[in-house]
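Q: Start with the shorter request: fold the first protein.
A: Done. Sequence, then structure:
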Amino acid sequence: MTKSLKIASICGSLRNNSYSASLLSAMADLLPEGTEFNCVDIASIPHYNQDLDTANGPESVFASRALIAESDAIFITLPEFNHGVPGVLKNALDWLSRPAFTSCFTNKPVLFATIAPGPLGGVRAQAQMRETLSCMLCKMLPLPEIAVTFAAQKFPEGKLVDEPTTKHLQMVIGSFLEKADLK
């Protein structure tokens, strides 16, 4: 019997019907049939405070760490806020990066994508994401970037309708699964 693929996902936006959530949904739709796809609820994670990072710490953090630890890989989507990573996402990653060197992200393949309503697609947030994720010791595979531009035109009513974007996502996700030995 073949083990089913488990993907943990993190949407870097809290907004209802955000472009980041729509992109994450489109990415999930491109995964092999039978893939288990679960989302970390970053809205439930409190502001990072090392005084709370104990054996009796926040349940939402323990649940998020367990979801990531039990996954085969992680997908993250995010908007760009003020040329960088949204604070709520960075906060979640700060919690999930603990304990240092042995966190739930250690050695996990991670694929992230940015999305924005303008012509740059959130590319300025990509450098910050790459820096944060690499210090978390996850597997950053050499792949083309996913930076979705003009989100409103490509995701009317929250569904991806742009064929070139769909093809790019298919190619990158397929390469990610292959390079991560998850195919």
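Q: Next, the second protein, separately.
A: Sequence, then structure:
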Amino acid sequence: MKEVNINAKLLVFESIEELTNEEKSLMQQAVEVRKKAYAPYSKFRVGAALLLDNGQVVLGSNQENAAYPSGLCAERVAIFYTGANYPDAKIIKIAVSATSDVNPNTTPIPPCGACRQSIAEYEFKQETPIEMFFMGESGMIYKSDSLKNLLPFTFDKNFL
């Protein structure tokens, strides 16, 4: 038997003010679109802003449905919109902000597993890493240089 040690490297910013102007703008857009989330059941709102290599910013917010599996997370709303409307564009950065209407959260909230897998698909497709920034309602922001820090064992087309 052999033990394998897997490490993740994240940068931690104490506030949005520490980000570059471009990153700050992206996170502010994620915060604003979070307010438009349709979350009548979970009361958990998420906003995502994607910066593409063509300069376009694509926004998404979570969209719930009474048939729970039919809803979609903010990150996937934005990613799938990007794939449908900008199929040749690369995603450079993703900013995500999430909080609960019931228990506001200032702890950085990372993408869920399904969103991580969807982001991984685009990293593989475009053959370049995607910088990820995530935060709660406000406060600290975590930055990962690639989805691989959050999902070290990815499932991709090579397994098919």
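Q: Describe the second briefly.
A: DSSP finds three helices and six strands in the chain. The mean pLDDT is 96.
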